[in-house]
Amino acid sequence: MDLSQFIKEYENKFVHYDTVYGAQCMDLARVYVREVLGDQYQFPPVGIAYEVWNKYPKAHYDRIKNSPTNFPLPGSIVLWHWAYGGTGHIAVAAEGCDRKTLLCVTQNDPKNSPTIIKRYKYNWMVLGWLQPIPSNS
Predict the structure, then answer these.
(1) Domain total for the chain?
(2) In what order do the strands lie in the sheet with 116-121?
(3) Does the residue 15 lie in any domain?
(4) Does a structural domain hold residue 121?
(5) pLDDT of amino acid 137
(6) Taking phi first (over 0 means left), then psi (-120 to 50 degrees means alpha), and beta for anything else, what does residue 75 get?
(7) At residue 124, does pLDDT exceed 90?
(8) pLDDT of 18-76, one tens digit each?
(9) Checking phi first, is residue 96 left (phi over 0); if not, alpha (psi -120 to 50) or beta?
(10) 59: exposed, middle or buried (C-beta count within 10 Å: 0-12, 13-18, 19+)?
(11) pTM for the complete prediction?
(12) In this structure, what CATH number is given to the domain that contains residue 118?
């Protein structure tokens, strides 16, 4: 499955990965990793979304800090500071990101929403993104 197939499959649906706490942004990110990237890319257990910024399989991602001169490639995992909603946020970059806005596949933003495509503005709360490193297999 690729990113466009993932979006087709899950858009406007509630995604539960761990069946705890309802459909959260982290659930969507984990299902994306499982369905598109593969198990070796999965994040270790975390309490809240922004913790993925420091807890991720470093052999499988390049961590790229947000700056005015870059933007995520489609399929990158975008992370927000804990101040965004009190837990941070995690989403998947879609086609159409540029240096001014992010277009992401997201869930529970706004609160209790299913999987949607949402345009975000960059600000200090966007920590950066994890760019998957292609597997050699």
Answers:
(1) 1
(2) 61-65, 126-132, 77-80, 89-93, 101-106, 116-121
(3) yes
(4) yes
(5) 56
(6) left
(7) no
(8) 888 889 999 999 999 999 999 999 999 999 999 999 999 999 999 999 998 899 999 99
(9) left
(10) exposed
(11) 0.95
(12) 3.90.1720.10
